[in-house]
Amino acid sequence: MLYVASVPLHLYTFWIPYAQHFRSKNWVVDGASADITQWRDLEGVFDQVFDINFVRNPLQNPLAALAGIFATLKHIRSLVAEQGYDIVHVSTPTAAFMVRLALRGERSRTKVIYTAHGFHFFKGNSSTRNLLFRGLERMAAGWTDALITINREDFDAANSFGTIAPGKVRLIPGIGVDPAKYRKVPETIRRELGLEPHQALLLVIGEMIPRKRHKDAIDAFAKLTDATTHMAFAGDGKLRQHLEAYVHSQGLSQRMHFLGFRKDIPALLSASDVLLLPSRHEGLPRCILEAMCIGTPVIASDIRGCRDLLANGCGVLYPVGDIEGLSKAIEEVLGNNRMRSQLSRRAAERVKECSQDILIGRHEEIYDAVLANEAPATEFVFPTTPAVESES
Fold it and tell me: Fewer Cβ close by (within 10 Å): the C or N end of the chain?
């Protein structure tokens, strides 16, 4: 089997437990992405790794991009033929389209599986972009042996394509989290930030890029009446310098902490009173799953993925871009101990369906079925729970 993504960070973040599991069952499991051979954190994870140069911004230099695309397609075909893979499992939209285009005539020998971590068309996006990306995904679905979606909106969309049989479209709640890894840990972060026991800490996890809407969290924070509350940002990205300057201009630097890229997410979540996710679009946010394991209440924008995990009492949802609504939700959750307890308890029940062991088993079922030219026998349904009660 070959796992493919546009960048090695994606393989590092999501697919290491899967590679380890199937290698333990005597599968040969390789990895491929741009510059993967330079990624030290993936050393020893796969049997072999291969660099594939995926053109990610073709409009910047169309002629050069076209030549690069043809070279990449040829490289993919030759790599798969030389290694004789039974399954190629690809993630990330650019890599997924190019791999399926390259192998569209090879599926009698090699099965192609695509996990959509959130289609690039979605409710609330521009109609032009939705038309383009939906058209590309619809076309490529016809070259796919199994299309795995991770939220209900994408599952319904894929089933409406008409280019892939419904039995080949699967709904699985993400890649999963290891409950043993995401447990409350001894306090260290609050001391690192110099916080007193009575000071609340809000946490935002995510790359600092436009779709994550970090500025919404900052603006909502500025409206809070409790001036002792702090906020921490875990993650890096092209907007970090701009966001730091904006925080400084608002006079909030003493209470807002930019932590950069962190690997100690369980410790950060253990120290935090609430996780915020103000994104414009997501697939099925891993940081929410991690918070649900730890027991940290979540406030998130009412979008696909967030809605699947947090609806019906497992978290608090608010309309994308509603700064006033986000600020009020923060104050409500911080000021209501009973509500926080309910959110944590119900989230803990829901996240059991998303444990890594269960989802590795679901993937194994899909792989076996695809190799046997069959449809997997079971379908996942996101569970529901009663709504959170307000404190009287």
Answer: C
